[in-house]
Amino acid sequence: MSVEATVEAPANIAFIKYWGAADLERAIPLNPSISMTLRRCVSRTTVRLIDEGRADEVFLVGEAGDLQPCTGSFRSRVVAQLERLRLWSGTRNGFCVATRNSFPAAAGMASSASGFAALTVAVVHALGKPTSAAELSELARLSGSGSASRSVMGGYVEWPTEADPDSCRATQLAPESHWDLRDVVALVQRDPKTVSSLEGHVRAPTSPHFARRQELLSARLDVVREAIRERCLERLGPVLELDAIELHLVAMSSVPAIFYWSPATLRVLERVRRLRQDGLEAWSTMDAGANVHVICTPQSEPQVAAALAATEGVHELVRDGVGAGPKLLTESLLPAAP
Ligand code: PMV
Q1: Cα 23 to Cα 98, 198, 201, distances in angstroms
Q2: CA gap 136, 270 in Å, rounded
Q3: Three-state DSSP state, 16
Q4: pLDDT at position 106 over 60
Q5: Ligand 1 centre from 110 Cα, in Å?
Q6: 3 state DSSP class of 246
Q7: Which pLDDT tens digit goes with each residue over 110-136?
Q8: 197: Cβ below 6 Å to ligand 1?
Q9: pLDDT at position 337, please?
Q10: Ligand 1 binding pocket includes 117 (Cβ within 6 Å)
Q11: 190 falls in which pLDDT band (50, 70, 90)?
Q12: Distance in Å, CA 4 to ligand 1 centroid
């Protein structure tokens, strides 16, 4: 049997961050979040159905297209998601999965959102099950990577907190054609982070600043929605930078404390502040890591990139922008089935 699908799904960068879970296993967030789906930072995943009862196989695809068996906690998370999707679809087939990221493997960039979005969408296509974007969002969320629920859609996406956790799905606020924003990512960290975002969600409520951030979020979300609607970076920028700094404030004051920043993170933040003093529209945000995403207009992008490339401690730049969401590809990452 050879029924398969290959899907490329993007990462996303949140303007208002998901930080703190009501139910970690099902990734039910304690606060709504809003993100921009990226274009170039993607995971590409092939899923092939294999015989009923056969164990799932999971491979990472190397630079030369070679397949390496995937081990450790990432494999366990993939297999757990395959099991959920088996239950959802009622199939008894096993799955053979091959996956690769477009962004540098050891760059410390979050890949779980794109990875689990690509996996989920590829399984659904391999099974030939028509599924709405809203349902895909919920299925991706069940992987435990909450941000994956936003990566199944393009453009600007909101993932609300619902009274009914079982219908906690993202919705698109605007397609990518609505507003051409850029994200220049300054990579300052080569190694994977030491504390996962999953652990961060657990520790978040132990910070004395957590509850205060929750109180402030409703007004902040209104500004972000409106700024996206009006394509106003002057209004969006200060809020997205503030929210990222507050995520890190909460992380640094959690028990035990989590410090994601490196000295180069601060240097980039400072450089971006100076760019603004020079009249450029550019604003910083960070996920659970040391790397800095600088959100800017297409006009500012060349100057932002030049300034970041010249900043001490920045070892690589990824120049990305708003993207259209997952797409189905014809080219497989698996060798032809016998
Ligand atoms: O989806 P998770 O569990 O990896 O959490 C994402 C956490 C942040 O990237 C820091 C914020 C966000 O909303 O993407």
Answers
A1: 29, 11, 10
A2: 39
A3: strand
A4: no
A5: 8
A6: helix
A7: 689 999 999 999 999 999 998 999 999
A8: yes
A9: 80
A10: no
A11: confident
A12: 29
